Amino acid sequence: MQKPEAHILTIFGASGDLTRRKLIPALYNLYLQDLLPDHFAVMGAGRKPFTDQIFREQMSAALKSHTSRPPGNSTEKAESFIKMLYYTSLDTSDPDSYKSLKLRLGKLGKENQTKGNMIFYLAIPPSLYTPVAHSLAAQKLTNDTDGWKRIIVEKPFGYDLESSRDLNISLREVFNEEQIYRIDHYLGKETVQNIMVTRFSNGIFEPIWNRNYVSHVEITAAESLGVGDRGGYYEGSGALRDMFQNHILQIVALVSMEPPVWADSSSIRNEMVKVLDSIRQLTVEDVKRDVVRGQYTDSVVRGENIIGYREEKGVETDSRTETYAGLKFFIDNWRWKDVPFYARTGKRLPTRVTEIVIHFEGTPHHIFRHNQGTSAHNQLIIRIQPDEGLLLKFGMKTPGAGYNVQDVNMDFHYSSLSEVYLPAAYERLLLDCMLGDSTLYARGDAVESAWRFVDPILKFWEENPSHALYGYPAGTWGPKEADDLFKDDLTWRYPCRNLADDGLYCEL
Ligand code: BG6
To answer: Is residue 468 in a domain?
Structure first.
């Protein structure tokens, strides 16, 4: 595996949660796999007045609780990794702070021979993206003349189409598009990348991956947890902005895009944008009929009292923020014309599962008797998480007299590749940015395209606050009105039953 070139990674928001829970553990895992550059340093930058020593102690504690250790872990390794971490306290609104940051980076660069190469990771509130980027530019820390410079921007990338455009414009005033890495951690998930490999490295799927053979596509991103202590953030976001605009639409793009000419960043991202641009815009009538929003209410799950969303910390007692969104939409192109896509995401659902179900058309004529409860439609289920894998459901003859058909599964679990280490999303994404590979980062036009689809829905809700918002008890699969998005007797695939009040639960 290729090692990245020497550089310094500066993390803005270094005293925050993301750094502690995801970024430092991901860097450590890369270190254990010998995937960090030989000349490398991490500069944490944050408001808190830490010294290098305090920052190191804190990150050392974080490693103990937040790493899924790949092979090679040891105390000495952890100690030598921690020595690569430094800290500068910084007031993002004070130009002098950036001067001292520049001085420290210059000194550290000389000591570590990092050749002026730098990555800036913005793990800070979105309102600071533009000021920080422009302050870096004012210190001449954004141009590529003396070593390369890259910037990683966390989500949310904008609040709606207009603000995402503004953000793109202001970042591009000081960085080129090739220097900007917009993170969507779903693209860093092994199984999300595998969507492309499944489709384009096998001869059997692609010929039937279209309107002639697929009846509909279903995407579920369910979480069993509530908003926890993120109520304040979530009130200004909701499920559509938090999960659908980014993670789910990126998955939709990978599932539905045309084969790229080659597996490089621009070929893949060109195809992703093309298909996102082809999603049919929803009219007001479509939104009323094809978008269902819900909010979890209190209930008892496995004997435990679960509070409703409106009781969560930081949430208004009359909040109309959706914690569930279910949608039906279409992609207007040759491949997918009139094939419905269904997507749902929500918090406090019965289990944590993200999966894609490709439902194939049935046989044109049934000559066998199907056992009760079996389906005449094949399904391919791509399990993104947990229990990553691929499941194909098809009919088999029930042994014995006659020709009865029963459903059986062909099931592949990544866990059966026991010797294979599945890297965490941030690990893969950080490494890619270090290598200058932006394939798994969202391009500016793709982000805008996703907002273009979501905007009319948000606008309709904003202008019609009394539009139906269905309560659903925590631990259930969201409002039952979301079932009505389907025609005839079709419905969502339910990987397990409701948990609320019925004492039943399932482990996937
Ligand atoms: C984040 C959202 O982007 O994704 C969270 O802000 C959500 O609300 C999380 O919980 C889900 O990510 P994962 O990897 O746990 O499915």
So the answer is: yes
